[in-house]
């Protein structure tokens, strides 16, 4: 059994064949997917998909969307969390965080939304799904203001020192398609060396395709597209298994257990 801890199943890339994507995931024994929202506009979509297909979801405002979000969207998030807190398929606040990679994003506004959403996570007793790109230290600074929060650091690609700082705070780190590239030496080293209890698997589908799905800029310009999907998770897991010298069965058990520890509401859903 596999758990995809980060999948944007509501993305328009899946509109033509979402049912087939889900069927391939089930065939690959991906028993659970966590569907994070990115803005108020897709809160209802991720919740509906989670209920329709026996999955789980998170509600939050992504740092790359805060520039187009209204200030009142934080109130809308508060209302949505309060309304759905008793929904067992709501497992986290996310996707939230900071993005210092994309130029021209308003960092002050990102930080304001990030801190406000950390406050909401603590208020409602939920873990968080953190977006991190060149922002690990800033994320950790924010977490120090809200002791006791934990969750998943999605698509981690920072230093070993930063990784251990998150782990000490009770977070687990998400590894996915980027780990499969031959040149991803830092990510592979982290996946190999971090404590076993700190690792979970993800696809970030339709994004971050693994090496076997990658298309060059020239291929993309010629119209050749690359779309990741949750059914790729077991093959992605083979890379982690090789790095850790685990069997695939061990990898599935360890990473699924870690996911349920990081997101405690997941475990009761797996028996449904």
Automatic annotation (TrEMBL):
Protein name according to UniProt: TatD family deoxyribonuclease
Keyword Hydrolase carried by entry: yes
Keyword Nucleotide-binding belongs to the record: no
Top-level taxon: Bacteria
Keywords for the protein's UniProt record, in alphabetical order: Hydrolase, Metal-binding
Binding annotation for a divalent metal cation 2: 131, 154
Recorded GO MF terms: hydrolase activity, acting on ester bonds; metal ion binding
Binding site for a divalent metal cation 1: 6, 8, 95, 204
Family: Belongs to the metallo-dependent hydrolases superfamily. TatD-type hydrolase family.
Pfam family of the protein (one): TatD_DNase
Lineage: Bacteria, Pseudomonadati, Pseudomonadota, Betaproteobacteria, Burkholderiales
Native species: Ideonella dechloratans
């Amino acid at each position: 059994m596999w758990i995809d801890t980060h999948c944007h199943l509501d993305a328009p890339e899946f509109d033509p064949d979402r049912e087939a994507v889900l069927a391939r995931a089930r065939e690959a024994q991906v028993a659970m997917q966590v569907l994070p929202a990115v803005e108020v506009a897709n809160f209802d979509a991720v919740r509906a998909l989670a209920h329709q297909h026996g999955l789980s979801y998170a509600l939050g405002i992504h740092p790359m969307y805060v520039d187009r979000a209204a200030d009142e969207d934080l109130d809308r998030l508060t209302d949505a969390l309060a309304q759905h807190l008793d929904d067992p398929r709501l497992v986290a606040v996310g996707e939230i965080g900071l993005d210092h990679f994309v130029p021209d994003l308003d960092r002050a506004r990102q930080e304001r939304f990030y801190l406000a959403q950390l406050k909401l996570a603590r208020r409602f007793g939920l873990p968080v799904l953190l977006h991190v790109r060149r922002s690990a230290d800033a994320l950790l600074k924010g977490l120090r203001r809200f002791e006791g929060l934990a969750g998943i650091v999605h698509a981690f690609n920072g230093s070993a020192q930063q990784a251990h700082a998150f782990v000490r705070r009770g977070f687990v780190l998400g590894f996915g398609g980027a780990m499969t590239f031959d040149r991803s030496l830092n990510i592979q080293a982290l996946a190999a060396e971090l404590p076993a209890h700190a690792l979970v698997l993800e696809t970030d589908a339709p994004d971050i395709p693994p090496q076997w799905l990658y298309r060059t800029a020239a291929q993309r310009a010629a119209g050749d597209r690359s779309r990741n999907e949750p059914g790729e998770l077991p093959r992605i897991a083979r890379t982690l298994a090789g790095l850790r010298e685990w069997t695939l069965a061990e990898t599935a058990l360890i990473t699924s257990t870690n996911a349920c520890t990081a997101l405690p509401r997941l475990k009761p859903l797996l028996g449904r």
